[in-house]
Amino acid sequence: MKSGIDRGSFFFGLTMGVFLFAGLAVASGLSLYSKAAKGFTVELPAADMAHLVALQVRQQVDAQIPELLARARVEIPTRLAGQVNGRLQGVEVSFAGRSIKLPKELRSDIESKVAAAVRSSVEEVIDGLDPSALSRDLAGQTEIMVRQSLAAEFREKTFVYQPWPWVSVPVTIKIR
Q1: 112-141: pLDDT as tens digits
Q2: Count of CB atoms situated within 10 Å of the CB of 11
Q3: Measured over all CA atoms, what is the biggest interatomic distance in the chain, rounded to whole angstroms?
Q4: CA–CA distance from 94 to each of 14, 90, 91, 106, 108 (Å)?
Q5: Could you tell me the sign of the dihedral formed by the alpha carbons of 64, 65, 66, 67, in that order?
Q6: Strands (E) located in 89-149
Q7: Residues 81/115, Cβ–Cβ less than 8 Å
Q8: Residues 6+ apart with CB under 8 A from 176
Q9: Taking the CB of residue 145, how many other CB atoms lie within 10 A of it?
Q10: Could you give phi then psi for residue 157, rounded to 5 degrees?
Q11: What is the pLDDT of residues 8-33, one digit of tens each?
Q12: Are 110 and 93 in contact (CB under 8 A)?
């Protein structure tokens, strides 16, 4: 009776294992090479991507629009009042063939009334704005623009990825 390992069976099993492993490695390599030669296709969902961008735009607009409207309440009347004040400096009234410059008090009164009218008009317009509707509209327009841009740019574009100098893998991007 023999004790220990049967060397013939051991070497036979080892040899078969090595050949099986080598065969699987070669088959996998050929399969990958074949796939790499044909290339890969990546499908991107344009609607989902555009929706994510639109959500981010809406969040940013919602966060920034109150500050923007507050600045507009102050800046617009100030700028318009400055423009009106400069134009009233040389105003003359013609009456019966004679020209009369506006008196300083009258000019100041007109300037303050114009500034008040501009301020109330700006506040009325800003108060009438719906910030959530503005952000919704802007987000909707952004979503449409992103979809169109993705469709135009990547309708079916192929890039070549070269992980090694001897391997080139075409990657096609499709927008759906």
Answers
A1: 888 888 888 888 998 898 988 989 999 999
A2: 10
A3: 144
A4: 116, 13, 10, 16, 19
A5: positive
A6: 92-95, 98-101
A7: yes
A8: 43, 44, 45, 46
A9: 13
A10: -105, 140
A11: 888 888 899 898 999 898 888 777 77
A12: no
Q: Is 16 within 8 Å of 116 (Cβ atoms)? A: no
Q: 41: phi > 0 → left, psi -120 to 50 → alpha, else beta; which?
A: beta
Write down how long the chain is.
176
pLDDT on residue 1: 47
| C-alpha 56: how far from chain center | 8
The alpha carbon of 125 is separated from its chain's Cα centroid by a whole number of angstroms, namely 29
Q: Spell out the residues 6+ positions from residue 84 whose beta carbon is closer than 8 angstroms to its own.
A: 111, 114, 115, 118
Report the C-alpha gap between 7 and 32 in whole angstroms. 37
Tell me which residue of 86, 81, 90 sits closest to 118, measured CA to CA: 81
The identity of residue 130, as a single letter, is D
